[in-house]
Amino acid sequence: MNFIKIIIISALFLICLPLEAADSAKYIFLFIGDGMSAASEFATSSYLYGEGKKLEWNSFKNKTFAATWSLSCITNSNPSGYDIESAGITPYPYYLHQNAEKYFETAPASDSAASATAMATGQKTENGHISTTNTGEILTNIFDILNKQKIYNTCLITTTFFYHATPAAFSAHNDSRHNYKQIAREILSVSKPEIIIARNEYYYLNDFAEKNGYFTFDSKELTKNMTFYTNDKKLFITLTNYNVPVPENNENNPYMAYRENDMKFSDIVMFAAGKLLAKKKPFLAVIEQSDIDSAGHANDYYSMVGAVYELNDAVNKLVSVIKSGKTDMNESNTLIIVTADHATGFLRFNEMLEKGKLPAKMIFTGKNKLLKVDRSIKYKSKNHTNELVGAYGFGKKSELLEIYSGSRKIIDNTDIFKILKNVTGN
Predict the structure, then answer these.
(1) What does residue 356 show for φ and ψ, rounded to 5 degrees?
(2) Rounded Cα gap, residues 116 and 130, in angstroms
(3) Which string of DSSP letters, residue by residue, matches 65-124?
(4) Strand 334-340 to strand 389-395: parallel, antiparallel, or no bridges (unpaired)?
(5) Coil, helix or strand at residue 16
(6) Residues 79-128: pLDDT tens digits?
(7) For a surface tag, which of 12, 169, 393, 411 has the fewest beta carbons within 10 Å of its beta carbon?
(8) What is the pTM for the complete model shown?
(9) Average pLDDT over residues 313-319
């Protein structure tokens, strides 16, 4: 009789659960290509496959574009943040119009702090703010919600410093993205993601992390036996042996050259996924490939292709494992979202490059005096642009991207937060 009562009570409990909680994603990966424009995706796809739209996420069933504007983008001449009438509903290279080009030349753009805050909190803010309003009020981010919920583990992976803008917006709050030490201490002592893999220039933070329950070590040790690590400990891994590979200019034979003993981005992601799965809890992993942005600012086409390739390779490896049936992850319980925080560099093509082909490297001397010119591509800026970026979904409830995009097939970056809330049952 007691057994029957337990069955009845359990059934009633399940019936009373909200739909979102009963239909949550167990494992969630949010990949953010910092500064990854549609043009940089197209360039990398062309190098690897000889045509655009061939990257791993281009094959995802659900895909759309995302607006990335911040409150700093609103001006008298740009009152809506993103002017669809001038800029269009499709980014370059899939749409090219003189009015759109003029708009991007002058329209203010978001920075990583404001854009990541939008994705992490569902609220727009001004550039420079980390999950705070322009008046300094604290905004609740998705890690705050999950920490209170106590069901999901969280994870931060980035190829830059863990206290920089994009990872910080998901795990800290500050009026200035440049208050690195304050942000770092909040992440390690308050937000406390289960796994952090990132660069760190403040080595005293290793001791601080250990005092807050972290097992700390260098990424060079990842391939060694982690004798003293157990799954009940949090992981704080300082990334020291990662560099973007260099693509080689070989017609019809794309090839990436890695430094000796360097890790691949896919190695980092798959290591973290394995450790998270071993903890036997649902999780949200926020994973940033930051070097795309650095390459865009430097107008470095080679590094840009290498960085986007690394992101593509990581997503490809993860999708393969999900489809393999070798882990608990599958398409029915795992969600992957791939997007960007903004576009950088204003990249444009004068001609489409073939598989394995790269533009000749620019050579400068003195005060930026140009010695060698390649006219197949051009960068029109070293800054961010207010262009739409891609947003792609695979697996559990990825159709939410399409639902939020509406008839114009554009989501706002704040919709990423709404999707994350939905799929975690909040």
Answers:
(1) 80, -5
(2) 8
(3) EEE---GGG-BTTBTTSS-HHHH-SS-TTS---HHHHHHHHHS----HHHHHHHHHHS--
(4) antiparallel
(5) helix
(6) 999 999 999 999 999 998 999 999 999 999 999 999 999 999 999 999 99
(7) 12
(8) 0.93
(9) 98
